[in-house]
Each structure stands twice: as C-alpha cells, then as structure tokens.
Amino acid sequence: MRFQIAFRRYRLTAPFAVLAALALSSCTSPGGATDPPVTMAIVNARIWTGNPKQPWAEAIALRGDRIAMVGTNDEVKHVLGATQPIDAHGQMVTPGFIDSHVHFLSGGYQLASVQLRDAKTPAEFIRRIKEFAATVPAGTWITGGDWDHQLWGGELPRHEWVDSVTPNNPVWIGRLDGHMGLANALAMREAKVSDATKDVSGGTVVRDASGAPTGIFKDNAQDIIGNAMPDATVEMNDRALNAAMKYVAEQGVTSVAHMGTWNDLAVFERAHRAGTLRTRISAAVPLSTWQRLRDTVAARGRGDDWLRIGSLKGFADGSLGSHTAAFLEPYTDVPTDSGLWVTQPSDLYAWTSAADKAGLQVIVHAIGDRAIRTQLDIEQRVEQEDGVRDRRFRIEHAQHIAPSDIPRFAALHVVASMQPYHAIDDGRWAEKVIGRKRSETTYAFKALLDSGARLAFGSDWDVAPPIPLYGIYAAVTRRTLDDKNPGGWIPEQKIGVEDALRAYTTGGAYAMFAEQTRGSLEPGKLADLVMIDQDITRIAPEKIRDVRVMMTVVAGKVVYDRGADSTH
Predict the structure, then answer these.
(1) What span, in angstroms and rounded, lies between the C-alpha atoms of 509 and 450?
(2) Cβ burial, residue 319 (10 Å; 0-12/13-18/19+)
(3) Which of 76, 118, 166, 471 could cysteine-pair with 420, CB 3.0–4.6 Å?
(4) CA 521, CA 552: separation in Å to the nearest integer?
C-alpha cells in the first residue's frame, strides 16, 4: 500500500576480478566424457550445506548456474582446470538465504523515503518529516516512514503534528507494521475525507472527541488514502525493484517470497523479460483473485527458477501494534477490544476452498490467536473436503498461537512462515498489550519445531529489515531491541543456530515448492550461496548480529562483493 516518490542512486557492485573470465579448459570425468569447465570454486571454507547427508564441507565448485561438486579441498581442486579458486580463509559459506515474506517493491521505495523507524519523540518525528519535505518538490506525496509510536510511549500521531511543516505536500506515512498510517490534512483533502467519512469493513478511521478524523487510518481504511495517490510510473517501479535487489544481495538474500499485487507481478515480469532479475522471486497475488491466477497458470504455467507464480495471499486480521489482531480474549490494555477481521471468515473459507480446488497455494496472514485458530479450522475443513495432498498451506506471521493450536501446524502440514525480528521488536511492549500468559506462546519457534512443524523464516520487509543474520540472531537470542532482556524474552522459545539457518534456507525453499532446486548446497542444485565472515555456529549467539556478508552468488554469478564495494 505504500508508494515512495523520491529516490537516491544505487551503484552495482563489481564482481571478483578472478571471476572475470570462464575457465579455459575442460575436465574429464572418470568415464572419459568431457564436462563443461568449472566456472567458479571456493576452497578453505566452513561450508554449511543444509544437506543432512553431507552437513559440512570445505570446498564447492560451480558449473554455470548449477553446483558441480561439494567436498574437500582436494576433491574440488581436482576438477578446477584453469579456474582459479576463491580462498575463503576459513570464512563460512551457506546456501543463499531465502526471505519467505517480503513486500519487495515497497522495500525498494522505502530505501529512498523519509526514515522514521527510530524516531523516539514526537518532536523528532516532526523534524524528520519537515527536513525531508524540504528536499522534494511541492505536490510530491511523502510516504514510507515506518514510524513506531511505542518509542514515545504509545500516543498515536495526529495530522496536526505535521500539517504546518508540510503545507504543500500530501503526507501518507505508515506505521512499521503496515497496518495503519498517518495522513496530513492535505492528503485527507486529496482523498475527500471529512467528518462524514465512514469506516470500512475490516478497517477503522480514528476520530477525535468531536468525531473528526485524526489522520490515522487502520487496515482496510488505509485504502481511503491509498486510492487517492497517483500511480507509480514504470520508471519508478523499475528503480524500486533494482534498489530492492541490490539491497537484499548485500544481505545474502538470493530468493524472496513476495506478497503483493498483480501490478507488482507485472514489474517483475518486465524485468524477467529484460534479463535483469538478480533475485529469485516467488510472487503471491491477492487471495480474492484466485480465478484470475487459476486462468493465468492454465495459460502460461507457473514460471521458472527466476520468477514463479501459483500462490495467493490473504488476510485474516491486522496487527498487534495497531490493536487489530484478532484475539480470543480482549487486549489486556483495552478490555473492550479483541481485534478485527480484515477478511470475514466466510470469505476466507470460500476463497481458500476454491483456490485449493484449483491447485493453487494459499497463504494467509494471521497474527492473533483467534485468527490463527480460524484459519487452521478452515484449512482442516478444506483438507477433509478435498482430500489429502501436498498443498503446503502457509500461515504468515503465526505470532500469538493458543497453546492447543501449536501441534495442529504439524498435524495439518501447515508451514509456519514467521519473522523472528518481530519477536525482539514487539517483545519490548507486547506484554503490556496481551499480558504475560499469552506472550508465552508468542513467536513460539521452539514449541513449533518440537511439535514437528515446518518453519520458514523471513523479514516482512519493509516492515522489518531484510537481514537474515538479524533474524537468526533474534531467533537464537530473543534479546529485545531495547536490551532489557539479555537472557531473551520468553527464552523457552529460543532455537539453535542450525535450526534458524534451516528456516532461512531449506525451510524457505520448501515453503515455495522449490526444495528440489534450492535451499541446500548439493550437486545439481542452483548455484546460489552466501559467504559470511564468521562461522555463526561457533561464536557467541549475541555476536551474530555483527557478522558481515562478504559475497553473494546467484546462478553462479557474484551479485555482491563486499571487497569490491568501497561503500563498506
């Protein structure tokens, strides 16, 4: 829903000089057949393969866009031919990270928008908007933001805060969870908002004591402002995509599951046709459009290893921070409120059932325990009606699970697609909102794993940073961002480093039906990998957030090289 207008330049990184040319000679297999030459190799590494049959190795060889060999230094050196290997000097290599939940274009736009995520006071919030407004032409919509009102005590911002500093620019800036935004008076005039504007189903227009809109619009009500914004141009969208691909490459991300729209898919398809994709994308479209996706898949198929379709994203409820997540019991701090339905359960069932019959994957956002239980009930009903098959239902976020529902994920083969960074972010204030008891199964990584559920980790970018090493740190330590929980918030839900690695690699691949081609380093699979400067299985967990990505490889080509990037 967020669209940013202003941009900054992005520079592509240079590849390793040693990889500038392909090998000049071939290697011969024991049977006498000649294979194509090895095109890249890494030796002297600590390679975590993600392959349980060969968990660790010290060298890897690539042939074009595929992995040719994983083994010892001697084994790989034997097949090098003229190719000069990269010496990792003991650094760690893992499969390319898979971010299982992003809003990719929004993230690209966000890179160039006003930055409010760490604004700690209303005065700082206002000052940053004022300073940003001075850098853009009159009439330009100021968007993005990612503000967090919890940083200054929980008071929601109002349009009056920013009206005087943005007299010539409509402002539409979102809370970091994407479930509510603040519009200034000019943006509300553009959207024809008045005291008579009504709430919409699954959304709220926040009003003051007199009934006038304060500028805060929650969940579906955000469309009132969003629909008044000008459409992004082709050039703007392409630049946002390029910025997003460059940024995630710097974080070691090689594949993403994008939650978005048909317009987003058109941007990805244009890049795919042009041969400019550097990130593999599995693109989900709205669940309500299942018929269009069914017909598209029938006509064109599901795509390839660069761009894949076949998934539908729906919403059950909102978010904890916006008090719109649907709970079985009221919020602790607002006893009259237990959240809302973004989509009515009857529609969720109808769309889930129809999409499943069409052979499409259903992905549903559910955060509160009532929303999670309702969607699990729907998925169980659909399986009973349509029969058992490999459908891989996904529940996105799965944040606040009722204890009795935890074993249902494994029993129903539902993927828990979770974003561990949220745990150390929300953990600063969640207990004020839902109390201690419900918090005990909030972001229940360990309980889900122990029950046999499959985890797929991601970031929810642009809601949270698309940095897998931060996510691994969060899952392993659960140390909140305010450093007030050094032993971990709800430490019983910590998991091990390798468990977190699996959720960011093999788990992500499984969640997008791609485990045959990616997620682990095995011969024949796609040559997607990342090198980081320390072995995160051997350092203190609290040090993981300081580990650096040194190189990212997609399809056998270097897309990020810290050594060649003078900005680091």
Answers:
(1) 20
(2) buried
(3) 471
(4) 14
Proportion of the chain above pLDDT 70, given as a percent: 93
The one-letter code for the residue type at 306 is: W
Of the segments 135-144, 237-246, 289-298, which one has the largest average pLDDT value? Answer: 289-298
The rounded Cα 187 to chain-centroid distance in angstroms is 29
Tokens for 164, please give them: 């005087």
Q: What is the CATH number of domain 106-226?
A: 3.10.310.70
Phi, psi torsion values for 142, nearest 5 degrees: -95, 120
Secondary structure letter of residue 230 according to DSSP:
P
Run of H or E residues at 431:
helix 430-439
Secondary structure class of 515 (helix, strand, coil): coil
Helix/strand number for the chain, H first, E second: 18, 26
Distance CA 3, CA 229 (A): 8
Q: Read off the tokens for 542.
A: 């609290």
Q: Which pTM was predicted?
A: 0.84
If pLDDT is split at 50, 70 and 90, which confidence band does 34 have?
A: low
How many residues are listed for the chain in this entry? 568
Q: Indicate whether 92 pLDDT > 70.
A: yes
CB neighbour burial string for 379-408, b if at least 16 within 10 angstroms, e if fewer: beebbeeeeeeebbbbbbbbbbbbeebbeb
pLDDT band at residue 324 under the 50/70/90 scheme = very high
Task: Kindly give the residue spans of alpha helices, DSSP state H, lying in 228-368.
Answer: 234-250, 262-274, 290-300, 345-357
Other C-beta atoms closer than 10 Å to the C-beta of 485 total 17
Average pLDDT, the chain: 92
DSSP 303: B
Q: Distance between CA 412 and CA 377 in Å, rounded?
A: 10
Q: Is the pLDDT of residue 462 over 60?
A: yes
